[in-house]
Amino acid sequence: MAMQKDKGTALITGASAGIGALYADRLARRGYNLLLVARDRQRLEAMAERLSRSYGVEVEVLPADLTDKHELEHVERRLRGDASISMLVNNAGVVMEGPLAEADLGKTDQMMQLNVVAPTLLAASAAANFGAAGRGAIINLSSVAALAPDMLSATYCATKAYMLSLSQSLEGELGKLGVRVQAVLPGVTRTEIWERSGANLAAIPERMVMEGEVLVDAALAGFDLGETVTIPSLPDNADWDALMEARSRLRPNLSHSKPAPRYSR
To answer: How large is the greatest C-alpha to C-alpha distance in the chain, in angstroms?
Structure first.
């Protein structure tokens, strides 16, 4: 029990199903107490009972719709003020398909709120809490769509690129304070999110579809390795290192007093 208390509490968003529920199971197994956030109280309470019974940890549910400003603020306050919370798993999100010109802009706005605004505000609260304590971890669920902007809808890919960039920037801000930041970039993963988006998962080749349990176990293995960016499907991490090296070579030439010669007339 002492080990569990040392680990503190993991707050997981989108915890009632899919990747969030799997994170809850794996972190409870590791000895974390849990604070589970999602809209579906009934599913959360059923999960809480099962995980508490299976792993002997404390599990609290916090039903909230993170697209609702007031409910999001309630979660923010809890995350910012509860010293027992030592990990944030920013998992809640939705997928949208189709071109932006044909999109339902109401649904687009809702996706932006859930995929960008909510995780940013929660990360800010966690950063304040964890940074002051000199410990803790923020795990942000991005997507390989962050690296392939033509993979799905423009707005969805953009939200996931944002989460990757946010994580890398936060690592620079918080790493020196003793706070871990990890971005996880899943590929196609067999979860309920695809059914809710209306996508046909059966049309995707099986070799491209990872099971949720496998994804979360790999993501946590990456966390244990100290990775800031974990791409579970990537066979050789040297490919990622090469991408980051290429980007670093651009940096000295990103801002000059004069434009490049090719723009001179």
So the answer is: 73
Burial category of 10 from C-beta neighbours within 10 Å (exposed 0-12, middle 13-18, buried 19 and up): buried
Of the listed 23, 32, 55, 156, which one is catalytic? 156
pTM above threshold 0.90: yes
Domain assignments of the chain as residue spans, ordered by start: 2-237
Q: Which two structure tokens, joined as six digits, stand for 9?
A: 């509490």
> From CA 232, how far away is CA 186, in angstroms rounded?
6
pLDDT tens profile 76-87: 999 999 999 999
CB 86 within 8 A of CB 10: yes
Which residue in this structure is represented by tokens 């293995």? 221
Give the total residue count for the chain: 265
Please say if 32 is a catalytic residue.
no
Instruction: State the burial class of residue 19 (Cβ atoms within 10 Å of its Cβ: 0-12, 13-18, 19+).
Output: buried
The CA–CA distances, whole Å, from 132 to 126, 175, 223, 242 equal 10, 12, 22, 34
Report residue 239: phi and psi, to 5°.
Answer: -65, -40
The CATH number for 2-237, chosen from 2.120.10.30, 3.40.50.720, 3.40.50.261, 2.40.30.30, is 3.40.50.720
Query: In sequence order, what are the beta bridge partners of 196?
Result: none
Instruction: Report the helix count and the strand count for the chain, using DSSP H and E.
Output: 10, 9
pLDDT digit string, tens, across residues 5-49: 579 999 999 999 999 999 999 999 999 999 999 999 999 999 999
